[in-house]
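Reply to thread "Modeling small-molecule complexes from scratch"

Following up on the discussion above, here's a worked example others can learn from. I took a protein sequence and the SMILES for magnesium ion and predicted the complex. Inputs first:
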Amino acid sequence: MSSRRARRKPGVVQILSMSPEETQRIGSELAQSLTVPSVVLLRGALGTGKTTLARGIARGLGIDDPGRVISPSFTLVNLYHGVCPIYHVDLYRLEGERDLGTIGLDDFLGTEGVTIIEWSEKMDVQPEKAMEVELEDAGGDLRVLRIKFPNGGKVSCSRSTARSRKRR
Ligand SMILES: Nc1ncnc2c1ncn2[C@@H]1O[C@H](COP(=O)(O)OP(=O)(O)OP(=O)(O)O)[C@@H](O)[C@H]1O
Ligand SMILES: [Mg+2]
């Protein structure tokens, strides 16, 4: 990954991004470390780049035109078919736990595919064993990404696992 990468505390990797394109690239690279099923929690203020990162992850999981990955603000969840199912969830407009139930999150979370959740801080209970990414706007186009890998940073497998799962 980028040379601007530095490990601050165990299991947390900090990466600087200077552009939306770079954030997408980081997302694609992160996708390579995801197993199926996986959950990615994206946290950060409005406009910090969560959807941009989600596009990159989707590209890394086989979506050739990540521009069609748009924030599912009204439906709360969009489904894409890459090398595995990709559930893109945005909880910004979540009104409460009752709403959360209507998404059917429990039906797919941790059971199949890769689930990417923007505004995951709105969930009362955070999914376990998730990759967590906190994004911060550091001024201009600079973004700080703090990534906590599940298993304390151990990168356990790659896209090939997602592929082999799909074939089953
Ligand atoms: N380094 C960067 N990485 C990502 N986005 C950047 C960067 N620099 C500038 N931007 C701009 O910041 C905005 C990020 O938008 P994006 O929709 O990805 O944010 P978001 O966190 O999903 O917002 P929201 O909370 O509204 O869902 C875009 O307009 C993008 O062009
Ligand atoms: Mg967004």
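What I'd highlight from this example: The longest helix spans residues 20-31. The beta strands are 5-9, 12-17, 38-43, 77-81, 85-90, 114-118, 131-137, 143-148. Questions welcome below.
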